[in-house]
Predict the structure.
Amino acid sequence: MKAPENWIDMSEHSHWPEWVYIGVVVALLVYVGAEAWNIERIVEHIPEDAELITVTAQQWFWSFEHEDGTKEIGELHLKQGVPYKFEITSKDVIHSFNIPDYLVLMDAVPGRINTIWFVPVDAGEYEMQCREYCGLLHYNMRAKLYVEKA
Ligand SMILES: [Cu+2]
């Protein structure tokens, strides 16, 4: 069968602009993917010397346990400039552990330990709160963070 006469015969044309275009798009995708992967790797990497804080949520308060066994309820004392690793869980329903000023936010789920880490760089007093509606007194499920000057 013969091709209709108004068809353009592309076989004689050079395709280099298309290949340049494809090359640029592929290079951009690879670059963006690699950057995203690298940032994720940096953010997720917990420093070896991070101190462990066990965070337990329950209706309607927070309890904290330091590595040395010290326990605190409704407040937490940390040292400025020290990296901390939080292991977060819940005794009843799903809560969410949040320190707005330090951009810390992690779900507290019964039967599961979720991990997050951060370094409190500035000394002072900060609010901690529950960010997942967890029942009647959810609004009051707050705790105080004290970052002590190094
Ligand atoms: Cu809660």
Q: What stands out?
A: The first helix runs from residue 16 to 44. The chain has a mean pLDDT of 94.
